[in-house]
């Protein structure tokens, strides 16, 4: 994955917008590859604010609904993640 960013730097990119949900988890690795000359922008906070606005506009708020975690990962990794959300339903998906 790290090599995926090198062509962007080589082409002269000066800004990289993280548009996928898992990229913020590896942002430090991305920043190590692209260096300080490339600005790394995480779109996650803006997307979360918009989701909260839409939820409020449609009457969905804190305490409404339920949390369901779906994973294709190994059972141990899935269970470790599920431990972060007590009470969430956990579903193992086939790859």
What this model shows, in words?
By secondary structure, this protein is of the alpha/beta class. It folds into two domains: 1-64, Rossmann fold; 66-95, no CATH class. The protein has four helices and four strands; from the N terminus they run H-E-H-E-H-E-H-E. It has helices at residues 6-10, 27-34, 44-57, 75-82; strands at residues 15-18, 39-42, 68-71, 89-92. Strands 1-2 form a two-stranded parallel ribbon. Strand 1 (15-18), helix 2 (27-34) and strand 2 (39-42) form a beta-alpha-beta unit. The protein starts with 5 loop residues before the first helix and ends with a strand. 2% of the residues are buried.
Q: Keywords, please?
A:
two-stranded parallel ribbon, alpha/beta, 4 helices, 2 domains, 37% helix, Rossmann fold, two-stranded parallel sheet, 95 residues, flat
Outline of this structure?
With 95 residues, this protein is an alpha/beta fold. It has 2 domains: 1-64, Rossmann fold; 66-95, no CATH class. The chain is 37% helix and 17% strand.
Q: Tally the structural domains.
A: 2
- The ordered string of helix (H) and strand (E) elements is HEHEHEHE
CATH-defined architecture of the largest domain: 3-Layer(aba) Sandwich
Assembly type of the shown chains? single chain
Average pLDDT rating: 82
> What is the makeup of the main sheet?
2 strands, parallel
For the termini, the CA-CA separation is 20 Å
So what's the CATH class of the largest domain?
Alpha Beta
User: What is the CATH topology descriptor of the largest domain?
Assistant: Rossmann fold
Regions with little confidence, pLDDT below 50 for 5+ residues: none
């Amino acid at each position: 994955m790290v090599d995926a960013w090198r062509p962007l730097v080589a082409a002269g990119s000066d800004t990289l917008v993280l548009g996928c949900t898992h990229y913020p988890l590896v942002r430090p690795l991305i920043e190590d590859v692209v260096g300080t000359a490339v600005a790394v922008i995480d779109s996650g906070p803006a997307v979360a604010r918009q989701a909260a606005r839409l939820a409020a506009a449609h009457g969905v708020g804190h305490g409404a609904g339920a949390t369901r975690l779906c994973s294709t990962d190994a059972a141990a990794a899935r269970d470790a993640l599920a431990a972060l959300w007590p009470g969430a339903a956990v579903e193992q998906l086939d790859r």
